[in-house]
Design goal:
With 699 residues, the protein is of the alpha+beta class. It has 18 helices and 19 strands. The strands form 3 sheets. Strands 1, 2, 3, 4, 5, 6, 7, 8, 9 and 10 form a 10-stranded antiparallel β-sheet that branches. Bound molecules: CIS-heme D hydroxychlorin gamma-spirolactone 17R, 18S (HDE).
Amino acid sequence: MTEQHSNDSAKNQDLDQYRVDGGETMTTNQGVKVSDTDNSLKAGSRGPTLIEDFHFREKLTHFDRERIPERVVHARGSGAHGYFQPYESMAEYTKAKFLSNPSVQTPVFVRFSTVVGFRGSADTVRDVRGFAVKFYTEDGNYDMVGNNIPVFFIQDAIKFPDLVHAIKPEPHNEMPQAAAAHDNFWDFISLTPESMHMIMWILSDRTLPRNFRVMQGFGIHTFRFVNEQGKASFVKFHWKPLLGVHSMAFDETQKVGGKDPDFNRRDLWESIEKGNFPEYELGVQIIAEEDEHKFDFDILDPTKLIPEELVPVRPIGKMVLNRNPDNFFAETEQVAFQPSNVVPGIDFSNDPLLQGRLMSYHDTQLHRLGSANFAELPINKSLCPFHNNQRDGRMQMQIPTSKVNYSPNSLGQGQPAPSPTEGFVHYQERVEGHKVRERSPSFKDHFTQATLFYNSLSMPEKEHAVEAAHFELGKVEDKGVRERMVDLFNHVDHELAKKVAMGIGIPAPTQAVSENHGKSSAALSQENTTKTAKGRKVAILATDGVNGEQITAVKTILKDAGVESEIVSKFKGMIKSVQGEEIKVDKTFLTSASVLFDAIYVPGGAASIEALLNQGDAIHFINEAFRHCKPIAAMSEGVELVQNSNIKGVQISDSSMQNDKGVVTAKTSSDPKDFAKTFVEAIAQHRFWMREQKDKVPA
Ligand code: HDE
């Protein structure tokens, strides 16, 4: 093991040689000092610009070439550096060195992304999220290029261009941006039943993650682990965020898209800047080779997951993201992930979707980055040196010093030479068959797991899925497409199909296609995730005359629980508490909104509340937070603001402290500590999706 690999900042140090600061004196790219960068060289101050102005030409021609093609999918993304550390040696299953020594931290670069939108699209659209991790291991780079959903739309890579054409903006008018809710997408899906499992996930809250810190990741395909003895097992990869898996309300995501299109990117950036490092546990489901055929689905079929009840997920290590990139373009935009980047100990399976990806990503990088030398870019460069006889090409950044560039050779002492012992050896799986364009019959069942997923959702999660279908298909003009979709939903669950049909102007199917198998899997519902208040953000509504003590007492306990809070008021600047202290306003009603917070707190103070009662924005804050099922807390006079909002269906006591479905109130004096603790417990619940009558609240 080299020292650099036992150190999580190895990649950081490696990047040091490439870092350039702003410099002192401006120069051209040739290092010539520049005398004036604001006026082009002209023949007379009112005359034409001269072509001999090399600084002008260099500045403009470089600018003209600043963009590279955006990714055809996953164009919008955000990256972070960190490290991965295994909990124990996995040598029994894999010879991958980065999984063998619990004392070694392997540097990683992660890029989270949406799939459909262009590079400048909003973060919070309903979409799958990419979860791609580059491990800079001592044996070379390993890329785990996954998503936040454990299955995929299609079974064979050859259908990918059709899927992506269908979901991207329509070709005649380039609308809609970053949305599946249009005719072309649902037309394709209505004719592609293999997508139905994925579609159930797409309609679920999984496509609305609150932020990347509370998002799961999956390798999706079945891969192989291979150990030192050459024994292989099948493996599925899972990333579990330590803060649990949490989503937003759909209405909320749409509003955030306007208020802060960088919502997820900002959260990732700010969390890392503040030292609240996102953490994810890597888990594996290991399947012995001899068990390949023991399931009632094919483990090579990427539209299927392996229920955790059948094969438990074993946590094997942790990833911590602790450093923001220095430069977005150089790192996040130029990082080139490839599922074909594997290291000894990890190998592929014959999943036909994975097989296609093994060529497509490399081809994409050649096109996007424009040179076969893209692996030499600082963010893509492996930490261990690379040597081969690949030479020249556009933007060659190395200076090979050997005169020998071929193999075999004697003039260079036969080097660089392959190593039969340490080199990557593809797993020698036995294969035979006829050359056929066929889908395996074992890939035929498209509905059993779609039903399994639907059955596993809680009531509110099911309702959200139906609403999502109403939205998505409600935007589809073609009636035939909507009819075909209802028919496909009827193959998943009869009641679901009836509910979907009701909202999209299609007659409900009269008969079930088959009986629902009734099976479910607890791990598939977000209801069963980790509940912690850590990492959440509370808005404190206040103005002059607020009870400062009630702010301090609650803020302290929130902070202890890892919850951030910000004062939101009408104007920026300072407000004065009833105790006379000056309190800084962090955000105003104009620069923020309830949708940017996880919970609301209204402290007392007669003058503050009297003023807020006359501010529609303050009332709207409460209504909207209630509608999105967020915890709301209010103390003493603050309770009046909550009572004067439009919230419905919760008990607010006129005296003692009360917590009814996440509305925590204490009108008469109660211990602020108890109050704050109850509030923290409510925040840990994340959302009170069961809140009755939320739909009656205007917001
Ligand atoms: Fe990708 N995918 N994909 N994909 N994908 C790309 O590569 C492709 C698929 C995923 O942050 C592209 O560098 C094909 C599944 C992520 O830079 C491209 C097929 C999964 C990212 C490509 C799939 C993914 C990409 C576009 C069907 C989850 C972003 C730019 C066989 C397991 C990586 C690029 C980043 C990006 C091709 C399906 C995840 C075109 C052909 C399944 C996270 O090469």
